[in-house]
Amino acid sequence: IYFDFILFFIYINIFKRSYFSVFKMLRIISANVYSGCRMFLKNKYLKNNIIQNMEFSITGSKPNDSKKFDIRHNFHAEVEEGLNQQINQEFCIGYVYLFMANIFNRFDVALPGFSKFFQESAVEETHHAQMLINFLNKRGGQLELKNINAPEKKDWTNPECAVECSLELEKQVTKNLEALCETGQKHNDLILCDFIESNFLHEQYESIKQLGHLLTNLQRVGPGVGVKIIDIELLNSKDLTMHSYKTSK
């Protein structure tokens, strides 16, 4: 740019050109000045952009990043951990019920009523886990899923043993839910206590009672035809979740 002005000065004073020639020379110089300014600004923009990218790669944040926020409120880490443990337990129990359901559906066991009963119970446990996940997300927590181990017992051909095992599992779930409520009370988390009591605890105690009814009937009839009669009742029942099973009159 400066070189153009020097040429212009020499052009006027030495060659004594006309005003038209001077105007033409000014247009050429203006075009060069405009081109030079564009190149300067472009290089400056690229330089700043490179610097910002380098800062982002080092710090992990851009200069104009929005301020981070969190929706967590009165949500203690111990409560979050307890919820994650309960979610994983629900999935594990559903896994066991699914295994039972498929055993009772085998050709050499042929108890479709018990298969249907445990199949729907597995779906119910998965639904419980999803309810807990939704609550965890609503509170601003993070889900941590664990590996699910295969059931230790492989032979569930005896319905009485399967129902007895289910009863113990449901009692353990109830105990853990009550412990989770105690953790919520410890940290004054009232919404957690209300959620667990209204959506889980009442249903758990109903499930324990109905499993007790089913186990009593199985022990009463003993092996043989009586088991098949109960199996037919389960197969014809519309709602087979554990808390809805009714004893026959």
Automatic annotation (TrEMBL):
GO terms (molecular function) for this protein are: ferric iron binding; ferrous iron binding; ferroxidase activity
Q: What class of enzyme is it?
A: oxidoreductase
Q: Which PROSITE patterns match?
A: FERRITIN_2, FERRITIN_LIKE
Ferritin-like diiron domain span: 73-222
EC number(s) on file: 1.16.3.1
Keyword Signal tagged: no
> What is this protein's record name?
Ferritin
